[in-house]
Amino acid sequence: MIPFAGWEMPVQYTSITEEHQAVRNACGVFDISHMGQFLVSGKGAEAFLNRALTNDISVLQPGQGQYTLMLNEGGGVIDDLIAYKTSDREFFLVVNASMIDADLAHLKSLLTDDDKEIVQIVNASSLTGGIAVQGPRARDVFKSMMGPSAVFPEKNTVQIAGTEHGIMWLCGTGYTGEEGFELFTPTSRIEYWLRSAISSGCSPCGLGARDTLRLEMGYPLNGNDLSPLRSPLQAGLAFFVEFDKEDFVGKDSLLKQKAAGLPDKLTAFKMTGTCPPPRPHCGVVIGGQTVAEVASGTQSPSLGCGIGMAYLPLEHSAPGTPIEIEIRGRNFPAVTVRKPIYQKPKLA
Amino acid sequence: MNIPDNLRYRDSHEWVDYMNNPATCGISDHAQHELTEIVFVDLPKIGRVVKAGEAVCTVDSVKSANDIYAPVSGEIVAINEDLRNDPGLLNRDPYLQGWIFKIQVSNPSELETLLTPEAYRAHIS
User: Using one digit for the tens of pLDDT, what is the confidence trace for A9-32?
Assistant: First the structure.
């Protein structure tokens, strides 16, 4: 168990590799009760969120969600989150555990006097727990947990769903690169759903596997790969920034950065020989010079080699660039690669 | 948990087979179980002289990098080269094929400071 954003969380239940493989090959369940949930509602909610977040929330139909970012005025990332539209006037946001207070304060600071009449923000984080069920067997697990007639949530959808065991936000999302779903429900029901997932065939998975799974996909982790000093353009998340909508916080800074050219870019890499796993803060060496530090790094259970991401100067960020990673005073060869770092073999 | 009777243990989970000098050292079954899948072993250099309690080498699991300490003072005279290609030996056979280094013990009385199997069992329980 390790402290994580005010929670005591397991790094692993059995072993990171076993849990990782369970998610890639069968199904795993993560307790994500630490994550934060906000309810943003009112007739001004959509316009407000479109100003506060980078993606275009107006394209969502009720029942749909999107990955999006909350920026500071300088265009740096405060948090990455999923925004779900549950009805025309109601939105459900899932944010990082460590950022609940900061996100809430930031959102509230953006409320104008006019907004306060028509936008309500409720922090439901302490009332709400969640689990993520992830893996190729997620649909079978879902039937077993919810009953044979329950409808599996398609990718990036949300529904208020229920069984005799309680109601929930049921979401077709996850952060592992596998098919799956997440459910958020009052904390008192979480133990039931966790046990239900496990008895339906899921391996319980800890923070360790969550990290190796997301890193193999090249998904950023706030605090490691995202920072208030770097923009989503540098983080390779331009897809989730909609410049064509009306103003949003950070837009001017992003446009300036775009015009000036990015100084660096979050770049994935793979170690090319036998070496210790790269870890956060290891130096990235190019041409004998330390040019960056590793943002995220680990041993990839799927690939059997070290992998990571680092903000590399643009001229060194193209896939196939040879680099070195300094681990405990020694340099080991690596090569930059396209994301995702790991791609599942397609079934013939 | 496997804690062989013929070894002494450091509270940081290294074992030493003190029946011969040089003495063979490794990490305990408990340690490998806690570290789980070991993916790399940074072996020490032969000829290095170390003091008891000094960090000698590093073992990487997926989870973390972990220092391994010298249970006794002396000179490193042999290292287990097999661990370079098969670090998983530490998980599968921590007391035999997974030995890490041999140390020419310079001060045999230090062995008295190490934990007996019974004391080590109590330490980890």
Answer: 999 999 999 999 999 999 999 999
